[in-house]
Automatic annotation (TrEMBL):
PANTHER family to which the protein is assigned, alphabetical: CALAXIN (PTHR23055:SF60), CALCIUM BINDING PROTEINS (PTHR23055)
Gene Ontology MF terms in the entry: calcium ion binding
SMART domains linked to this entry: EFh
Protein name per UniProt: EFCB1 protein
Pfam families in the record: EF-hand_7
Stretches that traverse the bilayer: none
Domain EF-hand, first and last residues per copy: 43-78, 79-114, 124-159
Keywords assigned by UniProt, alphabetized: Calcium, Metal-binding, Repeat
InterPro entries with a match to the protein in the record: EF-hand-dom_pair, EF_Hand_1_Ca_BS, EF_hand_dom, Recoverin
Alphabetized CDD domains for the sequence: EFh
Record bears the keyword Iron-sulfur: no
Length: 171
């Protein structure tokens, strides 16, 4: 109860500090991204955008206090099951229930550091996608279903954020 009250107070403080037109109802995308950046050190725009969409359950482009509390409860204290579902939703860019080869490529291309010396960095990313599919695609259909992703993460917890950091670090 105390933690939920603190989250609501934080929400109210952040919303009050904003001069945004959404402020009466909640966070817009930019305000939410600023909060993810300042509170959790997130820097990847694509990941922050996906986290916003995952929190914004009713797709109204605004995070309400309920979405804030429910989202942060998984984000900060979620069970493995909840975090698997959350990460899968973040990585499923088009919301079709699968993480495709293209979605993996986009997420990895976006989250990996660019090496100026590399001739074609995309080749290395394609290799990583192939490795991920070999390791995680249990039904061999060329894409990851939720069942594939869940099994892979349960076998190896480090795969939870395989396609980019979308959870806060332990600190």
């Amino acid at each position: 109860k105390c933690e939920v009250e603190c989250l609501i107070k934080l929400f109210d403080t952040l919303v009050t500090a904003s001069s945004d037109r959404f402020a009466a109802v909640g966070f817009d995308r930019n305000m939410f991204r600023d909060t993810l950046h300042s509170a959790f050190g997130m820097t990847d725009d694509m990941v922050m955008d996906r986290v916003f969409r995952t929190f914004d359950r009713d797709n109204d482009s605004c995070i309400s206090v309920v979405e804030w509390v429910e989202g942060l409860s998984v984000f900060l204290r979620g069970t493995l099951e909840e975090r698997i579902k959350y990460c899968f939703e973040v990585y499923d860019l088009n919301g079709d229930g699968y993480i495709s080869r293209e979605e993996m490529f986009q997420m990895l291309k976006n989250s990996l550091l660019k090496q100026p010396s590399e001739e074609d960095p995309d080749e290395g990313i394609k290799d990583l996608v192939d490795i991920a599919l070999k390791k995680m695609d249990y039904d061999h259909d060329g894409k990851l279903s939720f069942a594939d992703f869940e099994k892979a993460v349960r076998d190896e917890n480090l795969l939870l954020e395989a396609f980019g950091p979308c959870l806060p670090d332990v600190k």
